[in-house]
Amino acid sequence: MKPVRTATFPLGKYHVHQEHVLGLCEVPETKPPKSFDMYIPPDNTQEGLSVSIHEFMHACGIPDKYIHDMDAPVHIGRLLWRLGWRREEKEEE
Fold it and tell me: In sequence order, what DSSP letters do the residues of 12-36 get, joined into one string?
């Protein structure tokens, strides 16, 4: 499977970087530029899934109170993990 490099969300086009960080998503404060950067962990873990959902929710423009105060990404990630959602293993080149 080809790596995902960009994704379009309601707030705009994002360049998706998979790096060993806890997660980061640029959010426009006024007029948005042509594209933004999003950093998600490459880990195949429940925490990595929850962090990715967290950043995707930011890119959708969901208010912080639903993302941070209610821990929605953690609950969604936990359920998806229990349902068997995992990253596909990268093929050897």
Answer: EEEEEEE-SSS-EE---SSS--SEE
Given a contact cutoff of 8 angstroms between Cβ atoms, the answer to whether 10 and 32 are in contact is no
d(CA 86, CA 9): 22
pTM (2 decimals)?
Answer: 0.87
| 93 residues of the chain, pLDDT tens digit each | 688 999 999 988 999 999 988 899 988 876 666 789 999 999 899 999 999 999 999 999 999 888 988 889 999 999 999 999 998 876 655
Sign of dihedral through CA atoms 46, 8, 72, 70? positive
Q: At 24, phi and psi to the nearest 5?
A: -160, 135
Domain chopping of the chain, boundaries: 6-28+35-82
